[in-house]
Design a protein that fits this description.
Blueprint (H helix, E strand, L loop, with lengths): L1 E4 L9 E4 L5 H49 L19 H47 L5 H32 L12 H19 L11
Antiparallel strand pairs: 1-2
């Protein structure tokens, strides 16, 4: 602050009076404060970034376990499971769904393996029969009537193979949700007669009576 003032009487002119306050200390203090705040802010941001990375990695650890479990799963390792008890509540449904999926895959694979084994066994019987009949027929020269009997017997085996293929196609269609299965009446007498014809030769060799009796209601 400043002002002009006359000092005493008879003095020409005046004097400039100035009043000032030294603020250099406050300015130095504020500059140091801003500098310290900048350093503290830098370290806070750095610490927050490190903590965020650590938290993110910890949160992604269950997903990494799922990935590793999925990589370990093979046809022989379908029993692999993930324990959802130690997982966060948010990821528990995912772990449960993953384990249920593995259970369904294991069950489907077991049924497929059993079906393949049964199919191989069922196909082997008529094929061996056809091969045996062909080898016997070619072992020596036969009459046309004997060759006809061999062909008729082979035709029965071909019919069995054809029915097996039809059954396989039926099962394949049954698994599809886009195909509608049509129901029809089953002729039990005809099916039982087919079973009788299939085992008739074996029963005759063993000397066992084997017949079919159908009672209609």
């Amino acid at each position: 602050m400043s002002a002009w003032s006359k000092l005493g009487q008879g003095v020409e002119g005046g004097r400039l009076i100035q009043v000032a306050m030294d603020e250099s200390h406050e300015e130095t203090l504020m500059a140091g404060y801003f500098q310290n705040m900048g350093v503290v802010l830098f370290f806070v941001v750095l610490l927050s970034a490190g903590a965020s990375v650590a938290i993110a990695r910890r949160g992604m650890r269950p997903l990494e376990e799922i990935t590793k479990a999925a990589q370990r799963i093979t046809a022989d390792q379908l029993h692999e499971r993930i324990d959802p008890a130690r997982w966060p509540k948010e990821l528990t449904p995912l772990a449960v769904a993953f384990d249920e999926m593995l259970t369904r895959l294991e069950d489907s694979f077991a049924r497929l393996s059993g079906f393949s084994a049964d199919l191989a066994h069922e196909l082997r019987t008529p094929i061996n029969s056809l091969m045996g009949e062909a080898e016997v027929a070619l072992s020596r020269v036969r009459t046309p009537e004997e060759y006809r009997q061999v062909l008729e017997s082979s035709l029965e085996e071909y019919g069995k193979l054809s029915r097996m293929v039809d059954s396989l196609l039926f099962l394949a269609r049954a698994e599809s949700t886009e195909i509608r299965i049509e129901r029809s009446t089953l002729d039990a007498a005809r099916e039982l007669q087919a079973v009788r014809d299939f085992y008739d030769a074996v029963a005759e060799e063993q000397g066992l009576p084997f017949g079919v009796r159908v009672r209609r209601f």
